[in-house]
Amino acid sequence: MSSPISLTEHILDQQRLHPDATGEFSTIMTQIVLGGKMIAQDLRQAGLLDILGSTGDVNIQGEEVQRLDQRANDTFVQVFESSKIVRTVISEEMEEPYTVIPAERTGKYAVFFDPLDGSSNIDVNAPLGAIFSIHRLLPSSSGKENSLYLKPGVEQVAGGYILFGTSTILVYTCGDGVHQFTLNPGIGEFLLSASNITMPSRGKIYSVNEGNRQKWSNEMRNYIAHLQESDVATGRPYSLRYTGCLVADVHRVLLKGGLYLYPGEVMKPEGKLRLMYEAAPLTFVIEQAGGIGSTGFERIRNIQPKAPHQRVPLVIGSREDVELAETFLKPKIE
Ligand code: AHG
Ligand code: MN
Ligand code: MN
C-alpha cells in the first residue's frame, strides 16, 4: 500500500517542479485548505450551534444571505488577511472587490470565491460547496479600479472547489491535471485520494433545474427532450440528477460523465451562475479532466468579465455531451 500524501506535501512537490516559484502560491493554497477545514467543522455541527437561518440581509445578487454564507465568507477573508500575499478578493457575498492588503503594490495574487455554494441546502443537511479561482496580478499594477481584477478564466493560476458531502473533499488544478484530496477528520489533513482525474468523454446523466422549463428557449427545451427520448444505440434516455449545489452536481459530472446545465432564460438570457467565481474555476477543472465548459455558444474561459458579479449561462461536462448540446443551442446560420 502506498503511503498517504497530504495536500501540503503535494503542493510543495508541485512547487519543486517550478524552480522560480517563491512559495507564495503554496501559501495561498494552504490558506484555502485552512478555511475549508474551519468551514467543514462549522457545517458538521451546524444544527447544534446557533448558526442556521438567515441574517436578514440580501446580497448583491438579490439573494437572502444565510448566516453560514456570511460565516464562510468571513472565514476565507480572515485566512487571506493573515497570508499577506493575497492583495484582493472578490466574493459572492461582498458587493465590491475587497482589498486585503491596503499597500497597493504588495500582494501578487487575487482570489475570487464563492464561500458557500448551494446555500438552500444548509437547512436540510444536503451537500454544500466552496469554489475558488486564483489569479496572479501584474507586479506593476496598482490602484483599486475593478478593471485590474476582471480577469478571464484563461488567466487562472489555479481553480478548484471544496465539496462538503458525505466526506469533505478538495479538488483543484494548477493546469497540471486534476487532483482530489479527502479530509481525514481524525488527523485534520486532506490526503490525496485521486490524481490526474480524467472524465468520461460521454455520460448518461444530465443535471438541470427542470422546473424552469417554461422559461427556457425552444432550443433548450428541444435539447432536453432529445436526452429524454429512448434510443438504446446512444444510451438514451439519460437519467436526471440535481442536488441544488453546483459543486456537488459538477463533481458527479467529473467522476461519472454527463453534463450540468444552468441555461439562460428567454427573459433572463444571462442565466443565474456567476462567471468569475463559479463558472470559470469549475470550467478550469473540467477542461483539465478532458471536458468542456461553455455558455452553449462560447468557451467560458475566454469570456472577459465586465463586472465582478457577472452572470453567465453554463453548460459543463463531458466533451461529447457539451458539443451535442451546443449544436442544439447555437443559433443556426440560415
Ligand atoms: P449559491 O448558494 O452560491 O448562491 O449558489 C446556488 C447555485 C448553485 O449552487 C445551484 O446549482 C443553483 O444555484 C441552484 O439554483 P436553482 O435553485 O435555481 O436551481
Ligand atoms: Mn454558488
Ligand atoms: Mn454562495
From TrEMBL:
Q: Give the record's pathway.
A: Carbohydrate biosynthesis
Q: Which residues are listed for Mg(2+) 2 binding in this entry? A: 114, 117, 278
**Could you give the cofactor binding note from the entry?**
Binds 2 magnesium ions per subunit.
Instruction: Enumerate the spans annotated as Fructose-1-6-bisphosphatase class I N-terminal domain.
Output: 6-193
Q: Which InterPro entries match?
A: FBPase_C_dom (IPR044015), FBPase_class-1 (IPR000146), FBPase_N (IPR033391), FBPtase (IPR028343)
**Domain called Fructose-1-6-bisphosphatase class 1 C-terminal: residue spans:** 199-329
Subcellular compartments: Cytoplasm
EC top class named in words: hydrolase
Q: Where substrate is bound, by residue? A: 117-120, 209, 242, 260-262, 272
Q: Of which family is this protein a member?
A: Belongs to the FBPase class 1 family.
Q: What is this protein called?
A: Fructose-1,6-bisphosphatase class 1
